[in-house]
Protein 1
Amino acid sequence: MAEYNKEEIKRIEQKWQEKWEKEGLYKVAANPSKPKYYVLDMFPYPSGAGLHVGHPLGYIASDIVSRYKRLKGFNVLHPMGFDAFGLPAEQYAIQTGQHPAITTARNIETYKRQLRQIGFSYDWSREVQTCDPEYYKWTQWIFMQLFNAWYNKKSMGTSTMDHGQLNGKTEPIETLIAELERNGNQNIEAACDEDTPLISAEQWRNFNEKEKEEFLQHYRIAYQSETMVNWCAALGTVLSNDEVKDGVSERGGYPVERIKMLQWSMRISAYAERLLHGLDTIDWPEPVKEMQRNWIGKSRGCELEFSLTPSPSPTERGIDPVKGRGYETSEKKYWHILKENAKEHRKNPTTEEAILWEEVRNSRLGHKVRRQHAIGFFIADFVCLDKRLVIELDGEYHLQNKEYDDARTSFLNHEGFSVIRFSNQQVNDDLPRVLSQLKSALDNAPSINETSPSPTEKGKGVEAKIKVFTTRIDTIFGATFLVLAPEHELVGKITTEAQRSEVNAYVDVAKNRSERERMSEVKRVSGAFTGAYAINPFNNEQIPIWISDYVLAGYGTGAVMAVPGHDERDHRFAKHFNLPIVQVVEGPGVEEEAFVSWDAKIINSGFMNGLTVDEAIEAGIKFVEEKGIGKGKVNYRMRDAIFGRQRYWGEPFPVYYQDGLPKLVEEKDLPVTLPEIDEYKPTVTGEPPLARAKNWNYNGHAYELTTMPGWAGSSWYWFRYMDPTNKKVFADREQINYWQDVDLYIGGSEHATGHLLYSRFWCKALKDLGYVSAEEPFKKLINQGHIQGMSKFVYRITGTNKFVSAGMRNEYDVTPLHVDISMVNGDTLDIEAFKNWRTDFTDAEFILENGKYICGTEVEKMSKSKYNVVNPDDIISNYGADTLRLYEMFLGPLEMSKPWNTNGIDGVFKFLRKFWNLFHDGQGNWKVSETEATREELKVLHKTLKKVEQDITNFSFNTTVSEFMICVNELSSLKCNKKSILEPLVIALSPYAPHITEELWEKLGHTTSVVNAVFISYNEEYLKESSFEYPISINGKVRTKMEFALDMPKDDIEKMVLASEAVSKWTEGKPPKKVIVVPGKIVNVVV
């Protein structure tokens, strides 16, 4: 006797999970005789909390499709792995001292146990973990290919458009070097840095090795550059925009500031046009495509320069005469003595001083640095007077004389100088890191221009220009002010002394806010006036220069011309700060709100008056190009991707440094593995954690100390799934050619932009270099919604330890508190459990409703902090994995977010029990009949088969569950237990509920898994209606119903209707005047 209860469910699910694993049922290999179908899940980060019921939503959907496609004859690749590098594991390591690998391995085992018990059809033999050296060996290898590559815009492209080729592709760096040897870069069209100088072949050939490498950095796909980053000193690392909120780190809440730093970057901007075009070739949700388009941010417009009005002299700006008299920065009476001593020091530098001087002399870091320079009573090792920054090198003497150094630093600070110190060992062991930190400090320090002459001394204004990109050059006569990003390099140079404190204060706040925050807060208005002015080149009017955090240094030029009459954000800014608003586009007045139009004519704009917008744009571009102050240009908002983190738990770079140059390790020496270190936090001098490693070097040369970002390993993992154990190549070409690309990718919306862009970028680069076949990695994408938590609240009366029930809370001043949902049955709180939950609740008092404490309810994100997490282990323990799978699909459309309510799961469980009972009698005995099915039973079956096929094809999983329930109800009503009906139904249900269907399939007499069955396609013949129940109307009112065959002639229907007793009753024996028969619709009798 077999009753479908908790014990039987547990037995069935354990039995089949063990059998699947033992037999390797879901293992797959390339098979050219079968069509392939590749289903991919966004592999999870294995957190310590394990899965909650929201996590498997997309996995269940992808598993249903995978199982269904197998039944339809496809060779299905459905792998799973783990995106295992991450900040949480590193933070836990910092707190506990436990190696992140140990924590990660333990978490992965928890995830695998949970995933297995839900019954997923993953090919676990293909599992990858990004933290496995055998995996990240190939991440490092791909980095090496990108380091040794450049983007040639002239090269015939590999991406096709409707009207031809998209020119431009990635090429080996050797082709660039060959062209430089022949012709220099005069004829090269490449994705490169904007400040790349033009050189001849002779100049290239005369470069030394270091100069050649510095020049190639302008072109490499993977390269080093000074970049604005989100720096979190407390965590000792750069954070992505996603990891910063309200100026603090999302993890830990530590302050974050925007600074310039030498970073590895990826030249993703080279692929901007291809990334845009590719969106038209793939089946992705339009909102996701639009997010990608916005991120790439293509715009056509004009880049032009605004000249600055002359700057005041140091004296006019209020700089102290002693501190601002040029390079003489010591007391006058000691100057000559100290100057002579300094000369002696210059002649006899220490080894480390000589090394550092070679790197900073002649403004090689972008700033003039002096060595052995007298300040006050001291001689500084190095100093940048413009930035008021002293650089000190400390040998062993300084370790024993810290008090002297402290006093010296205090004096220099009093004189207005900042001090940065490095040890001799740092210079010897990791010179690139020293130079990076030094350049960052110089770039971010405010400039005082202490030696700049006044306009009268020099006879002309400052040479600096402000470069602006605009898509609306037609509105330039309405530009009444400029706005710079707070991080713009000119801010410190142009700000007047009168405005410096205000500007510095604003910059300090702005640098702690992420770019994402600044972009999203469109209605927030803030800014500061620099005191400087620029000249509008079209009307020669002087306009003020402001700074505001709505302008980003990394987007465009970091400066905008503000046209408040015709831009909403500029208008709010102008109104807030009482700046002029000029109308230059014909239409409604602009005093109260901006008027934005691309169709009107231009007014108040000199030679542009009367032109349409398009005509004025063309005229404006022609004007700036003729004057030599600008050019028409296509611009992209997307910046190159930062590719380094100051963390331990990440992929090490396959890079070492020799004579200050970055070099790649040999391929035979991959992987470069993470070394053991004593602590997982930055060093006391601010270096990344890897600086703690002892004897970690490449043939005596220092390794790169940063690690790759979290997205590195996830930007190519679908290729490794194709050939996960290959030790010779990242994936065999035969495997790549068979599996090609991902047919269906299901993931959360949190991956809708960054991960997808980086994956598409790497795929295109690898294709260009000949390693893969696909231009786009993911053909079809679905972003699943979230399963939200049902949070429960108790209401504490303010200032007491008394709690009032939800229905009475408005009568008191209360504070809502989250309560663990495990203590709530429906809405009723288990008071004793609540008292035992926390010590501060032990003596709590309660004001009840009808003898119960009723909790409040709110739908929120499912999160441990809100105590609303539902563990799938608990659901499976009580109802089984099949019930969980069906219920998650039943909750609503996959793409939508929906709240979890455990109370609703009982209906799905009862459905499965009812399905089980179709095969058993009332005592639980097996009772399946070989009797031939009736047409009515076949109709029920084939209606369901049709719905299943249509819904899975359209990814409408929730409506399929409803159809299964209707089907089982109808078959139960028909008391159907016929094998010819139940067997196809088992196959159809198996993608949704694999355990119960495997058990029933076996009981039906099969020796192989239901996975190997063939999905029975519906037969339209069984869906055709053979009869119809006609409503019979007497004088316009329906009085009864009668069923007739649909092919019965009208005359026969009329005879049978008139012969009916029910009709005779209503006609009272009167002969009908007319009988109207509408086939398949109605019969109307008129008397």
Protein 2
Amino acid sequence: MGMAFLKKDQYDRAYYAFKEGLRVDPENSELWFQTGYVLAKQERHRDAIKMYRNALKYDPDNLNAELRLGISMHEVGMYKEAIPVLTRVVDRESDNPQGWMYRGACFLALAKFKDALSDLDMAIDWGADQAEVWVLKGYSHVQLGEYQDGLDAYSFAIEINPDDPVAFFGLANTLVHLEERDQAIDALKKALKIDQEYADAWRMIADLYADLGDISQAIGAYEQALKIEPWDLETRYTYSILKAECSDDKSTVTDILNQIVNEGQESVTFYNNHGLTLMHLKKYDSALQAFNRALQLGPDNSSVWHNHGAALYKLKWYKDSMKSFQQSLKLNPKNFNAWIGIGMVATAQYEFSRAAAAYTHATQLNPKKVNPWIMLGDTQTERGQYQDAIAAYEKALELDPENTVAWNQRGLALRLLDSHPAALESFEHAAEAKSSRPESWLNHAITSFELGEYDQSVVSFERACKRGPIPVDSWLIYLNALAYEHENNKVIKACERFIELFGPDAEVLFLLGVAQYELKQYEAALHHFREALKLDKDHYDSFFWEGLTLLELFQFHEAITCFEQVEDNNPEDYQAWFYHAKALVSLKELQKAEFILKHSLAINDQLFEAWYLLADVQNSRKSFSDALQSIGKALELSPSNADSLIIKARIQASIGSYRGACQTYALITEPQSNDAMVLFGYARALYHTGQFREAYTKVTRLLSRDEKNPELWKLKAEIERAQGLFEEAANALSEACKYAPNNKKLLSLQGIVLYEAEKYSEAIDILGRVLSSDPQNGELWKRKGAAHEALMQYELASECYEKASEFVQEDPDLIRRLGISLYRSGKCALSIPRLEQYLEVVPDDPEIWEMKGKALYNQGQFSPASAALSQAVLLKPVDTDLLFRYAQSLFKSGELDSAIPSLDQVLEKDPDNAKAWQLKAEIEQSLGREEAAAHAVEEALRQIPDDPVLLLSRVKTLYDSDTYSEALSLIRRVIDKAPENNEAWLLYAELLWITADHDAAAAALERILAADDSNAHAWFLKADSLQNAGRFEEAAVAHERTFSLGGDPSIGLLLSRKMRYLQQKNTPAS
């Protein structure tokens, strides 16, 4: 009957049924056992023990009774007594899991944790599968400091029975030891969800909230615990003092503490918890007092010593703190938190090796705890042991792959190893976690900044801003990243925001100024650079950028002052020297600029801009060789730099190295190669090297873009002119002048090219326009004179040459042209000095010697003329005309014999030269060599039979040989050919007179005297002819006129001729 009631859990009825059975059979061991079992079910374990002992009294081999006796003894705390009982059970039945489990529980209660674990493991091995055994095992591991094993045991218990609040409570306790307070709270919440009346769970969660500083949650949890166990004075005091501490009610705190003392309720746990609460309220002095009292009550409590050390650490009493942690470790060498404390104190004292050793101990004690690995990594980083640090962080990440702190710190260590890409990946892992803080993106930003990836740095900083405030130092890096990215508007806004948050800062004002400078807000930039210098007078970057800004504002002297400030502070700042030089260039102080640039390059010869500017300065100073060397250095640094190639080509052109310039221009690539100035320079270089077709192609291409550019038309004209296309060149210059009508050089060139195109009148007109505004331009006067000379306007030409000679000195060509034009305009006397002036400089010009001779000849200076012509002949001995003129001058100067050889040379080369024969006839006649003279005349007349001069010469020969009839016949032909020739008329009259044709002679003489009334010879012949003709009165008048003129001395010779003629005429032929 009892068993039936027992199965139905009707324990009272079962008890009375079994008691009734014992009344009937008092020595029945099984009934005693069943009675004990019912009592145990009713948790009347002491009564049950009596029943079990009676069962064993009547049956010592009743194994169930022995087992249940041991269990009940355990339940009433009779652990020592239970152990032998349970030992007999497992000795007799080693596969009894209940025996092993409860004996293990007894060992656990007696703090024999290793023995407990051994029995619990045996229980599990023999099939104990309830959660309780794993909870006991977890507790044992925790007490032995084997927290990870404890964590595993509790986790397994929860898997077996997820509704066991004790398993969750044990798990929470283990997590607290592992410093995983948040997870511990989560476990406690689950325990309380299962059992809301679990007072211990409420107390623990309250302590944890207090420990974490969440005082309101802690107070709420304590209130829940007190509702369940209002008699728990420790909890009540803790609750009350916490509220009083929060309200800073010192008197209440003191009253409560006094009450605890007076009521004898002081405990180590209370003061320890009180101290922890004060720690979280940052009342470290009060916390220290609480821990001191706890240690007075329990000096051997390792945890309290640890907390005591933590309070001292917070107060920065590091030596005392270290002693407390060491005392904690003496009491419990496996006190994980004490090792952490020693590491923290050592770190604070910069004893990083000692700290690393402490953290290493901590990781050995609890290798699955994340934070010690991170702290070890931080310490190794401080020691410079970056690889060891990374290994520690990676160990932490093995345990918690999403741990943002570990990823972040790992990134820092990698960055210190210069493994920036790997560091970035680490920071990205940290930043992408839900619980990430701004630091990860900030570190990502700083690493990107160090890599020069400023755009990514900016993005990362802005992501950090979304997660929380940015520290001042990080703001500065952010501003610099924006500046490097030239995000100038963002820089300005960010700088203004910084100043709002933190106030003015020299570096920020400087960056604000730089952004405004780049936006060309120069006045604003200048203001902020100066404001920065007010805050930091040694902020030399601000001096430098102030100088740059002043350059842009054309305040060059002030800019130089700023650069000098930088140079005085840092003489090796080549950039300051460079911009100093730029300011000097702007002031046209090129010599100083060149010196400064050379100094800059002596500091750093790799600055391309300095070499380039130096070349430009030297080029401007016409130091072309130095400039070419400097631009060569620039091109070594930047071989394809178009600007450098352009200036090199210009320098080469300046020194006449046009072929080199062409080669340089050919190296310039697009788009600069299509630049108008480059094409123009290239075309000029091609022109100067005779590559006219290529030059013409480029100029034509440029004109298609800009047809109103006078310089292009000018170059086109020069190319055409070089090819002899003067008319086309003149047309091109006409176009050039259309677009630059006041350009004197273009007008001058147009005039010159018009002259070359043989458009002399137009050339004269253009040159005249230029000379009206530039009357002292000797070269243009000369060109105008040449145009007049080409038009044979020699007098105008000579006037222009005279004007040119006022401004152009010692120009032999000008002197020559002036002499020639004067001569050709008939101004022989004026031409002679100019010709002589020219011959002093150029004595081997036969043409001028000849012209000088002609001029002298025309002036009647025959001897000087022959001397000049003699020089011409020496230089041009084969010129027959020159030889002839030379002979003429000798003839005129009376050097008749000297003239004959020259004439013979002429006639040898030109036997048909009638004039030479004629002159020779005259000379031979003058020398009385009639036969030679007659031969010469005959040769001359053979060439020109009707030449009056030659006929006259023949007449003279006949006359001298007394052949008067033939002479008369021939003289009439002369008069027919040259009726105005007075010499012929006089000779005709003489022949008529000699041959006694008196009336005809008188008539001929009348004509002669009409032209020359003072001719005494003609008056005598007329008087004699009139007298012989019987015209005596007229003869008398003529004689008187003859006598008035002094008579005619040659009349005797004539009378002798006439008498001889008449005698021969009257003598009959024999």
